[in-house]
Amino acid sequence: MIDWQPVTGSSRIIAEAYLQETETILVRFPDGVEWAYQACPPTVWQEFTADSRGKYIATVLDSKPNGRWTG
Question: Taking the CB of residue 66, how many other CB atoms lie within 10 A of it?
Fold first, then answer.
């Protein structure tokens, strides 16, 4: 079971989760689409949650292997 955490104060995403065993950041967008960003060690997860998430996705996560999360 994925522990989705609601995100407040962001217009770009509504929830997030981190799968430590696969180093994957999951993001749920307002339209319901869920996206996975792989090759994200815990330090990247910490930076993501401490920064502007939308900006971090554009500048860091989009360069990582990513695609639609199908669970």
Answer: 18
Contact 34, 69 (CB under 8 A): yes
* Contacts of 10 by beta carbon, 8 Å cutoff, 6+ apart: 53, 54
Interatomic CA distance for residues 2 and 10, integer angstroms:
21
Tens of pLDDT, residues 3-24 = 999 999 888 899 999 999 999 9
**What is the extent of the structural domain holding 45?**
5-68
- How many structural domains compose the chain? 1
- Rounded Cα distance between 60 and 64, Å, is 7
Interior angle at CA 33, CA 28 and CA 37, nearest 5: 60
How many CB atoms lie under 10 A from the CB of residue 56? 19
